[in-house]
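Before going further, learn to read the protein records used in this course. The integers have meaning only within a learned vocabulary of local backbone shapes. The record below shows the convention in full.
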Amino acid sequence: MKNLFTILIAILTVNSSIAQITLIPDTNFEQALITLGHDSILNGSVLTSNINGVTNLDVSNSSISNLTGIEDFTALTFLWCNDNLITNLNLSNNLALVNLRCYNNQLSSLNLTNNSALNAVNCRDNNLTNISFSSNSSITYLNCNGNQLTSLVVDNQALSQLYCSNNPQLRTLYCNNNQLTTLDLAAIPSLEDLRCWSNQLTTLNLSNSAKLNAFNCENNQLTSLDISSIDSLRYFECRNNNLTSLDLRNGRNTFFNFFNATNNPNLQCISVDDTNWANSNWANSINSQSYFSNNCSATGIEENELKRITVGPNPTSNNITINFGTTLMHTEISLVNAIGQVVFRKENNSSEPLNINLENSPGVYYLNIKNIEGKAYRSIKIIKTK
């Protein structure tokens, strides 16, 4: 009887001992724990009591491929496991997690469904095609650059791979260098900083993005953009798209710190708050075929006629010739230098070519052509070389 009792005690002791052990199959992960003082012997396990109270864990740059054992870090709030070789990451047992950095791994799976306290996630440069953030309503920063995402839906449609519909506090979204074709941000009115460049976007919904102040959508396939309702915008880059329509009339163009709409070969008329101000400040931010107007949609036939006018040579060392083609309207033509001084002005009521001798100093000039009623307007940048 005494021997039986001894055996039972031994079994209970062994079971108790096993229950206090967390398996760490990845040698590099365990070595990182030893370096941090959470373990002492490289034996494939760690005492659970040594890790279940850890709040901050930085195991970045450690050649880790398997993070098994992370589930017993139940008090963890900050996890930095970036720059490793991890392919799958399940943090569903780390309920206190607030900040996650898992970028520069080989992740194809990331489970954050139980992490409702998360407010910052950086998972850029992985192999993710499907991420759900629908349970992470506290997120304020999300960077998913450089993955293999093909669709981003944020309006409860849940059509494909990246879901942000239940993120009312999301202010920063970086999703550039993916394969996104559609981006609907109508369900994120708090968004302030959006970087979605170098995708395949043809559709972009910013109808509820009134707080946006930085927006970069360069290197996409967008044909139309209207930011007239975003009066907080300060930084805007939309170069290298297929734009044919661009409306910038937000009433606060003069507050812009940066604007670039170059390399949109089909973009002609750009709607702005003030044509003269835009010509003076943004002439280098558009291509030669583009021009500014107070209202591109309302200029009608007369503005279409102005579009047919050609000017050359440009650049020029001496003269320029304005060819009106078949256009016949009463126009006012002026040439303005880079500081806004008018160096040439003429009213024209003929369709014959008009030659202008540029005797001025080399530099940038703006040839402004408008109908005499001022309802249609075109501005062309002229480069004088010598």
Q: What stands out?
A: The helical segments are 2-19, 27-36, 48-51, 275-282, 300-307. The chain has a mean pLDDT of 82. Residues 24-306 form a domain with the Leucine-rich repeat, LRR (right-handed beta-alpha superhelix) fold (CATH 3.80.10.10). The chain has two domains: 24-306, 310-384.
